[in-house]
Design brief:
Structural class: alpha/beta
Helix content: 25-40%
Distance between the termini: 37 Å
Strand content: 15-25%
Largest sheet: 9 strands, mixed
Mean pLDDT: 90
Low-confidence stretches: 334-339
């Protein structure tokens, strides 16, 4: 296995995911983990993740002394590289020009096990304000970029490497090869871990954790909660109760579609009608963080009648939900509060009453789990839908009339994407109703109505994303249909922002 020390990067779990994709098990630990705990697992190598801190900041997480004394291969990524450089006598300094996004990596060495199969120059993803300004005495340069004189380094005699870029993200063109070369070429790991192992181990772990207690499953109809519910069904049978909340924030015809989908999986849902409650709680609220907190609290209140004191709440939480909401194992920064990480849920987690079997996985891994469980392809490849629903796509105040407008526009978008054969090429597509009105001309009369934004992105894991280049004729048809068929919208825009710096959802 590969041990990963998490210094708080938003991408730490991506490293684990990429390693697991090589059929090698990877586990994440905080940098404060004991030497004995890690070495007892007999890791083939250690990866030091990136992180938001500066190595010189007061209280910045440090490199444990035992890492370099272990004799194991080490790969430092971004902040991890800077820690290696500092610990070995190099110099790290604030860069005059911060580097976020694509950069051209130039190889400056010809022979090294980690460079096998790499091209002399490729695009990589940078995300740093500091950089190694002076190499440690025992290190040599492997690569540079326009803004980074030491984009990759290696110890002259030991298998210790540092890279300033992020090989784990989709946008580093040869990032997977860097990791593959480290895992196999440097660490000598064996490719003997499969997703089937995860399913079998997780089912057994669920049974051990739950014991004789009951589990209430929060089901949304999305891929994550659907896979989670099937796992629970396999592990617990009648001990689990799947609950689907109609909160008034769902897409058009979503309730009927989800019930039918679960009937086909031989799982009977308990449907709770709670639209009045949620819309009442959201009245007058425009701040997106407060929307998420209110929705999360209401979900807990809706689930309470199904639970007695000893019961557990199961959620289909994935790693991106966790890392964007709160620090997990390393000192990461909060990006936004997810509805499944509000105060009430965190309190239940502290009480040991929340079970989240998918919390260390990404969407693509969850789909792989679903395939092992035999869930139909069309169900697994539905576009992601946020837990807070249309509330975070209805910018400004959330009201039923505004939601009805948004629902109709969103249904047209999805219908046209499927008709034009683009739906399956897109990770996520949706309409956002803006708190903006614009002047238009409709039927020779002046109109003053809402603006809608169409958002289509490609991604593999939701951690990074690019906007999807929808053909102009398809854009034109979507815009024309929304403006002509949805009363209340007279202008449609197309969002061409990538993640980062934007997030996929607007709120």
């Amino acid at each position: 296995m590969i041990a990963i020390l998490d210094y708080g990067s938003q991408y730490t779990q991506l490293i684990a995911r990429k390693v697991r994709a090589l059929n090698v098990f990877a586990e994440i630990f905080p940098p404060t983990v004991s030497e004995a705990k890690v070495l007892s697992l007999r890791p083939a190598g250690i990866v030091l993740s990136g992180g938001p801190a500066s190595v010189y900041e007061k209280g910045a997480p440090k490199l444990p002394d035992w890492v370099l004394k272990s004799g194991l291969p080490v790969l430092g990524v971004c902040y991890g590289m800077q820690l290696l450089a500092l610990a070995s006598g190099g110099k790290v300094a604030r860069s005059n020009k911060r580097e976020y996004g694509h950069a051209l990596l130039r190889l400056r060495a010809k022979v090294d096990p980690i460079l096998v199969g790499l091209s002399p120059g490729s695009r990589v993803w940078m995300s740093h304000g500091d950089k190694v300004e002076e190499l440690p005495p025992d290190y040599k340069r492997l690569a540079d970029s326009d803004n980074c004189p030491f984009a990759a380094m290696v110890h002259k005699s030991l298998p210790i490497y540092g890279i300033q870029f992020h090989p784990e993200v989709f946008h580093s063109e040869e990032g997977e090869r860097w990791l593959e070369n480290f895992v196999f070429g440097i660490c000598g790991a064996r490719a003997d871990w499969k997703m089937e192992n995860f399913v079998d181990n997780t089912i057994e772990a669920i049974r051990l954790e739950v014991g004789e207690r009951k589990v209430v499953c929060a089901v949304s109809g999305g891929v994550d909660s659907t896979v989670m519910a099937v796992l629970m069904d396999r592990a617990l049978g009648s001990q689990f109760t799947p609950v689907f909340v109609d909160n008034g924030l769902l897409r058009k015809d979503e309730v009927a579609n989800v019930v039918e989908m679960f009937d086909n999986l031989d799982i009977k849902l308990k449907v709770v009608k709670a639209a009045k409650r949620f819309l009442g709680s959201l009245a007058g609220i425009v701040d997106p963080e407060e929307k998420r907190r209110v929705i999360g609290r209401d979900f807990i209140e809706v689930f309470k009648p199904f639970m007695v004191k000893a019961d557990l709440l199961a959620q289909g939480t994935l790693y991106p939900d966790v890392i964007e909401s709160v620090s997990t194992k390393g000192p990461s920064a909060t990006i936004k509060t997810h509805h499944n990480r509000v105060k009430e849920v965190l309190e239940m987690i502290e009480q040991g009453r929340v079970i989240e079997p998918l919390r260390e996985l990404f969407k693509d891994e969850v789909r792989a789990v679903g395939a092992v469980l035999g869930i139909p392809h069309d169900t697994l490849w539905r576009h992601p839908f946020p837990g807070p629903g249309l509330a975070v796509r209805c910018l400004g105040e959330v009201t039923k009339p505004r939601l009805d407008v948004l629902r109709e526009a969103d249904a047209i978008l999805i219908e046209e994407l499927k008709a034009s054969d683009h739906y399956g090429k897109i990770w996520q597509a949706f309409v956002v109703l803006l708190p903006v009105r614009s002047v238009g001309v409709m039927g020779d009369n002046r109109s003053y109505e809402n603006v809608a934004a169409v958002r289509c992105v490609t991604s593999t894991d939701g951690m990074t994303a690019d906007w999807y280049p929808l053909p102009y004729d398809v854009m034109a048809k979507i815009s024309s249909r929304i403006i002509n068929e949805v009363k209340g919208i007279n202008r449609v825009t197309y969002d061409i922002s990538s993640k980062p710096p934007a997030t996929i959802e607007w709120e």
